[in-house]
Amino acid sequence: MMNKGDFEQTPVFLGTSDPDFHVPVERVYASANILREMDASVTEKVYANRGHTISEDEIELVNRIIF
């Protein structure tokens, strides 16, 4: 499938845990690659053994990326 569109370097953060039983880490890597192909400025971070949750570290990182 060919993705169309241009993110024009829009910042995108993808955070996940390995393992995450809801979203496999391979899916996150695949999504990051697709977004990069569409010219997004992707930051990805994989946390060890955190499960499917949002951490304070992720919130702080996203705030630095956006602001």
Your description of this structure?
With about 70 residues, the protein is of the alpha+beta class. The chain has one domain (about 10-65). It is built from 2 helices and 2 strands. It has helices at about 25-35, 55-65, and strands spanning about 10-20, 40-50. It has a two-stranded parallel ribbon. The radius of gyration is 13 Å and the shape is flat. The N and C termini lie far apart (about 35 Å). The model has no long low-confidence stretch (mean pLDDT about 95).
Attribute tags:
67 residues, alpha+beta, 36% helix
Unreliable segments of 5+ consecutive residues: none
User: Percent helix among the residues?
Assistant: 25-40%
Main β-sheet description: 2 strands, parallel
How many DSSP helices? Answer: 2
User: Which sequence of SSEs, written as H and E, runs from N to C?
Assistant: EHEH
As for the number of domains, it is: 1
Question: What do the pLDDT scores average to?
Answer: 94
Spatial strand order of the main sheet: 1-2
Oligomer: single chain
Q: SS-based structural class? A: alpha+beta
Write down the overall geometry: flat
Residues in β-strands, percent = 15-25%
Rounded to the nearest angstrom, the distance between the terminal CA atoms is 33 Å
**Could you tell me the radius of gyration in angstroms?**
13 Å
Overall strand count: 2
